[in-house]
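Researcher: Let's do a round of design. I'm pasting the structure tokens now; please hold your answer until I've finished.
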């Protein structure tokens, strides 16, 4: 389960739907794994405005991951200006690819490569634990909790 996924999950119990404490689910006893993937700058740029930044920061603290800045970065801050040799006539905006910044690479590593292999996700409202095994969370509730 990718860290990015935690930013979109909430407790499945009906009693928790109306409370803010049910989001985000808090990882407990989590074993993290890095699954390398190709850098996808376009995806990171487009998903960034949809991320609940405070929840992501909280999850990083709970997992012992590097601390994120207080505010979400602007999508334009993810790319450095392209390096164009001074002796060329090419305009920097024409066909030159912008270089990814360290921030973009760090966000890619955190959101898309860092996964929870095993552990639990705990609701902050009701305390229900959802098991994560082999990177897959089990959100099926027992009949008495539905």
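Researcher: That's everything. Go ahead.
Model: Designed sequence:
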């Amino acid at each position: 389960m990718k860290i990015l996924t935690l930013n979109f999950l909430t407790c499945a119990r009906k009693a928790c739907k109306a409370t803010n404490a049910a989001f985000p689910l808090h990882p407990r006893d989590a074993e993290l794994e890095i699954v390398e993937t190709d850098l996808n700058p376009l995806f990171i740029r487009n998903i960034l405005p949809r991320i609940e930044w405070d929840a992501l920061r909280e999850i990083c603290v709970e997992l012992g991951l590097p601390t994120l800045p207080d505010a979400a970065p602007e999508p334009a801050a993810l790319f450095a200006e392209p390096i164009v040799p001074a002796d060329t006539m090419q305009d920097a905006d024409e066909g030159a690819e912008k270089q990814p910044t360290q921030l973009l690479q760090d966000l890619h590593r955190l959101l898309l490569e860092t996964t929870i292999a095993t552990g639990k996700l705990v609701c902050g409202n009701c305390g229900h634990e959802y098991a994560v095994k082999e990177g897959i969370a089990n959100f099926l509730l027992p009949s008495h909790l539905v």
